[in-house]
Amino acid sequence: MHVQILIYDGFDELDAIGPYEILSGAGFRTELATLAPVGRITASHGAVLVPHATLAERPDLLVVPGGGWRTRNPVGTHGEYERGVIPAAIAQRHAAGSTVASVCTGAMLLAKAGILEGRPATTHHAALDDLRAHGADVHPEARVVDDGDVLTCGGVTSGLDLALHLVERHLGPDAARAGARLLEHERRGEVFEARAVR
Amino acid sequence: MHVQILIYDGFDELDAIGPYEILSGAGFRTELATLAPVGRITASHGAVLVPHATLAERPDLLVVPGGGWRTRNPVGTHGEYERGVIPAAIAQRHAAGSTVASVCTGAMLLAKAGILEGRPATTHHAALDDLRAHGADVHPEARVVDDGDVLTCGGVTSGLDLALHLVERHLGPDAARAGARLLEHERRGEVFEARAVR
Q1: Residues B175-191: pLDDT tens digits?
Q2: Which of A38, A40, B117, B177 falls 20 to 30 Å from A10 in CA-CA distance?
Q3: Where does B2-193 sit in CATH, by number?
Q4: B132 touches A at CB < 8 Å
Q5: A47 — contact with chain B (CB < 8 Å)?
């Protein structure tokens, strides 16, 4: 499975690095990818990363972190929401057949992409109303929402539970248990599964 | 407070980035630092980071991540343990007055530095016996061990609880609660406090 985690200036470090470590550790080919070729990306708390790749036409799984939504930071998720270039790229990958998953307020980029309308979803607690305003069927009680080809989760650390859910979905419960144990992470929270897993 | 998180080739991404995000978000001046000047560091799962700084003579807090101990990877914690250059630098900073904290098997670099002998400590479950062999008073029941000027914690995600404990210690419980809430993280596990917090 080819996984790409889309990073952009102002993304939240943990939103991306949590799923990156888990999905990579599970054996998936996992890359931190940018939309356009660029030498470095500076995350919301100041970590500087060198991307591995640019976004493929159709990764099997595209993970979209959030960062900076709550503070309406012009560099980060809110800025990318306003610009619309990343949302359009997400819509293209989804239309091409990629499974798309967001962490935290990355959900707002999926909403802007138009792929959450009428669909069950969640996001960081500070953005639930914004997500509702896009017509998503918001499930604040869930830590992870799995709607088949579109997955979302709550704030920051729920990305760990999203990633372990994806490991379980693709490799089975033993692999997810081993991943959680290696990280000394106790999975928690509800996983709302809207439809049979593909 | 000046915080430096020591990164080196093969460090575990989450060991470092979890505390980085929390300590930086709490308002501490927090840097990802290398021992010698270097352009890039490649972490154990392949993330590539550009360090912010080199290790200061006496940061207020030095955080040491693990990575690759279990597999005896020559690039990573085990390699640095064998080489001994990083352990010597840790010993120097501790002697100069820095508080030193490890995440996961970063504890083995503190052990090699000679600063855990006879002192309460913990590490990733796969390295508890190795830590015991260094004469540390191992507390496997604890997720975080606070021995004043030396702190240790369990595997990978326990770094989140270590960092929130440090926020609580320096800024108080409300700040730690706010940090956990922002990350949608539920603090868990025992904090073994060996002595009155300085």
Answers
A1: 999 999 999 999 999 99
A2: B177
A3: 3.40.50.880
A4: no
A5: yes
